[in-house]
Every structure is written in structure tokens, then in C-alpha cells.
Write a structure and sequence with these properties.
single chain, 370 residues, alpha/beta, Aspartate Aminotransferase, domain 2, Aspartate Aminotransferase, domain 1, seven-stranded mixed beta sheet, three-stranded antiparallel beta sheet, 13 helices, binds pyridoxal-5'-phosphate, pyridoxal phosphate, PyrdxlP-dep_Trfase_major, UDP-4-amino-4,6-dideoxy-N-acetyl-beta-L-altrosamine transaminase, PyrdxlP-dep_Trfase_small, PyrdxlP-dep_Trfase
Length: 370
């Protein structure tokens, strides 16, 4: 048996056909499929505008630039993939780390403590695919005149109180990396209802070039972070299946919740979600109880040996050398404990319920030996 990864793509014959057709089309780049994909994404999310690009990292970079975050500060979470804040640094903006709550998301109760001169935005992350506390963050941003930016790279297809993630913040970023909800191999997007922001993003991802008939003009320094037609074709085909993918992940997550109920070793984030949150279940995180933290490396090794492709999400960003050197050593005790406790179990649309059951049993057996 091969290692069962914590997340993986699901490609079927429809996807192959779509990419092959695009490959045989008149345009491989800057053709009609990219705009068609953007329209389809906007309709699915219930937002006015979507800009797609090469990946979520470039989407974040362009968004921070389009919102003029240079030389400002953004309150953000230490529990994310490092791209969320690396792109703040690339924009010459300073991340202010706010500690997390028990769900792994930025804790709204701690936001006020992070306020300081120069803060212009909150950049939150929907950890594991589960939305942040939307009303609390919105109220905080409204109170202080801040932008609400959501790195929703884990959460495409998720919802909060019946509204799709992507339609809740001032701007939301998604990733279509291979292992995210749907994939374009590599790919990213920004969703927003702000028309001016949309136009600025369109310019930034394509050299800053404006066309007026035969004439062109460049007023803004732009890049080339455009998605290509093959990726858009794959994205259009994948988008048709997103709700089935998410339903499958939810089925596995619920099975796990049940099989792990009252176990003595760990708690499950999914089992404790607010009824308002419909997670995209990019991750199925468990939190080991403190008596096991000291043996986590051995536990991870044993799980890998048993063909479980477990991972740890995430080493808190403020503890990385780059960030310590730039911002000084900081203490964010909840994020640091979370890191000691967390393991992401395999949970994806290609997994059978039988394999999920086997995975759960194996995990419990292995932990019984520690
Ligand atoms: C995956 C991910 C990214 C980066 O996405 P890419 O498309 O690989 O650039 C950024 N932020 C978060 C939270 C992610 O999980």
C-alpha cells in the first residue's frame, strides 16, 4: 500500500478532456477560458469580481499592492502557510501577529490588543477550511476603519452562516494548488465586490499595460502573474465537482468525529465547529493531549510507517528565523501550544470510507502504544 497523503487532487477523464481540448485550441495564453473561469468562480462564490493568477502567493502579493499596504501594518495570524506574511514583507508591510483561538483561527478577542499606529488591515486565514468569526472581525474592522482581507486558501467551497467564503471579506484569496479544494495544478484567485480593486488587480497581474485601441499606456509597475488557458480549462472542469469533493471530505470528517469520540489521546477540531461554519475540510486537524506532546516526533514517524501521510500545520510563522530577525522574538503561547499538539490526518475526495475507518483504527492502535 502506498502512503495515503493528508490531501491530494482528484483528476478524472472530464478533466483530461478539458485540458486536451484547451491544448488544441487557438490560444494557450490570454484566450477566452481564463475570463470564463473568472466568471464561473464569481457566480459560484456570489461575488461581483474574480481575478485568477499563477498561484495564491502571487494573488496575495498583488492584492497587498493593490490595497496600498506598503509601509503600513497588518494584523494577522501566526498559524498559516508562510506565504500569507511573506507577501506582506514583499510589499514592505509589517505583520502584527495576533494569537489564535481553539479553532486555530485568529482570536477576535485579542485583536484590540494588536492595534497600533499604522495598522491598515486584518489578514485572517480560514484554518483548515473553517471560516473565521466573520461578525467579530467585521465589527473590529468597521470600528477602526481597517480593511478585512481573507487568505481563504484552505476554504474554497466553505461557507459561514450560509454565505460562501469569498463573499464575506473586502477581498478573499484562494489557492488552486494541487492539494487544495479544486486544482489548476498551480493557481490562485482574488474575489471581491470592489470594482476599482478588481481593475487594479487586472493591471498589476499583466505588466500594468492598459490598451486603448492601437495605443498602450503603462502607469503602474506590473508583473506577469497570469493564469494560462490549460489551467483555466482544468479549473472550469474541477469547479463543476467542487461540491461533491467537499461533501466527500465532510463525510470522512464526520466518520472520524464519530470514531474518535471520547478517545483519551486527542481532540478533533471538526467535531467542535460552530453550526454556522461549513468547513471545506482542507485539513482534518487533531490536537494531541499535552501528555503526548513530548513524543510527537515518534508518533509522526510511526504513523508514516503505517502509510498515513500525516503532516503538521503549522510551525508558527513568528518562530521562523526570518521573522525573529526582522521583528524580534515574540511569544504567542496558543499558537505555540497548537503547534506542539497538531497533526493533520488524511482527509480527501479520493479516500474511501473503508480507508478512513482503517486510518482511524490504526491511529488509535498506534497511540495506545505511547
Ligand atoms: C496554500 C496556501 C498558500 C499558497 O498557495 P499557492 O497557491 O501554493 O501559492 C497561501 N496561504 C495559505 C493559507 C495556503 O494554505
Amino acid at each position: 500500500m502506498a502512503i495515503n497523503p493528508y490531501s491530494t487532487q482528484c483528476i478524472d477523464t472530464d478533466d483530461l478532456k478539458a485540458v486536451q481540448q484547451a491544448l488544441q485550441g487557438a490560444h494557450l495564453a490570454q484566450g477566452p477560458l481564463v475570463e470564463k473561469f473568472e466568471r464561473a468562480l464569481a457566480d459560484y462564490l456570489g461575488v461581483k469580481h474574480v481575478v485568477v493568477c499563477t498561484n495564491a502567493t502571487s494573488a496575495l502579493f498583488m492584492l497587498y499592492q493593490a490595497l496600498d499596504l506598503a509601509h503600513s501594518k497588518a494584523i494577522t495570524t501566526p498559524l498559516s502557510f508562510v506565504a500569507t506574511t511573506n507577501m506582506l514583507l514583499a510589499t514592505k508591510a509589517t505583520p502584527i501577529f495576533c494569537d489564535i483561538g481553539q479553532d486555530g483561527n485568529i482570536d477576535p478577542a485579542l485583536l484590540e490588543n494588536c492595534l497600533q499606529e499604522g495598522v491598515k488591515a486584518v489578514v485572517s486565514v480560514d484554518y483548515g477550511g473553517a471560516s473565521v468569526d466573520i461578525p467579530a472581525i467585521k465589527a473590529f474592522c468597521a470600528r477602526h476603519g481597517l480593511l478585512f482581507i481573507s487568505d481563504s486558501s484552505h476554504a474554497f467551497g466553505g461557507a459561514y452562516a450560509g454565505v460562501k467564503i469569498g463573499a464575506l471579506a473586502d477581498a478573499s484569496v484562494f489557492s488552486f494548488h494541487a492539494i487544495k479544494s479544486i486544482t489548476t495544478a498551480e493557481g490562485g484567485a482574488v474575489a471581491t465586490n470592489d470594482h476599482a480593486l478588481y481593475q487594479r488587480l487586472k493591471l498589476l497581474i499583466s505588466h500594468g499595460v492598459e490598451k486603448d485601441g492601437w495605443d498602450t499606456q503603462v502607469q503602474t509597475l506590473g508583473f506577469n502573474f497570469r493564469m494560462n488557458e490549460l489551467q483555466a480549462a482544468l479549473g472550469l472542469s474541477q469547479l463543476k465537482k467542487v461540491d461533491t469533493f467537499i461533501a466527500k471530505r465532510e463525510e470522512i470528517a464526520c466518520l472520524y468525529d464519530n470514531l474518535f469520540k471520547d478517545n483519551p489521546y486527542f481532540t478533533c477540531l471538526h467535531a467542535k465547529l460552530s453550526p454556522k461554519v461549513k468547513s471545506a475540510n482542507h485539513l482534518y486537524p487533531i490536537l494531541l493531549k499535552p501528555f503526548l506532546w513530548g513524543r510527537k516526533t515518534q508518533i509522526l514517524d510511526a504513523l508514516l510507517q503505517a502509510q498515513m501521510g500525516v503532516q503538521v500545520h503549522y510551525k508558527p510563522i513568528h518562530t521562523f528565523k526570518l521573522y525573529e530577525n526582522l521583528l524580534g522574538k515574540q511569544s504567542l503561547p496558543k499558537a505555540e501550544s497548537f503547534y506542539k499538539a497538531e497533526i493533520s490526518l488524511p482527509c480527501h475526495q479520493k479516500m474511501s470510507l473503508a480507508l478512513a475507518k482503517h486510518t482511524a483504527q490504526t491511529l488509535l492502535e498506534i497511540l495506545g502504544g505511547f
